[in-house]
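Usage

Read records sequentially. Each one opens with the input sequence:
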Amino acid sequence: MNIGISQTALNVFGLSQDVTANNIANINTDEFKSKRVDLQTMPDNSGVQVEDVVTINTPGPLKNKMQLVENNGKVEQQNALVEGSNTEPAREITQMIENERSFEANARVVKTHDQMAGTIIDMLV
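and closes with the structure output:
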């Protein structure tokens, strides 16, 4: 049993979870562009790896925001339209669940490997 594949997958899904958590943490940050992790199958179907971390460039919603503007030596408040974060909560929560399930499955493979190795060692001793 080759647990290297599962160990690599644990790292991949950990990174994907980090990116998703960062997107959620910045959901209220004006002009924030969310990211996604693109995965690809490794050669000979020997696991999964990160192909790229891509910035999603769809526009966020426009919001009114008060800004301070200097006008003839005076500072005044003005309304301005600012682009909000383009993070979509439903997409991010779905991605977090997918990451969690994939991480759990690969962690089970590693745990099973450890238990099998322990059983073999116990039989030899």
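Summary fields computed downstream for this record:
- The CA atoms of residues 3 and 114 lie 10 Å apart.
- Helices lie at 4-25, 89-124.
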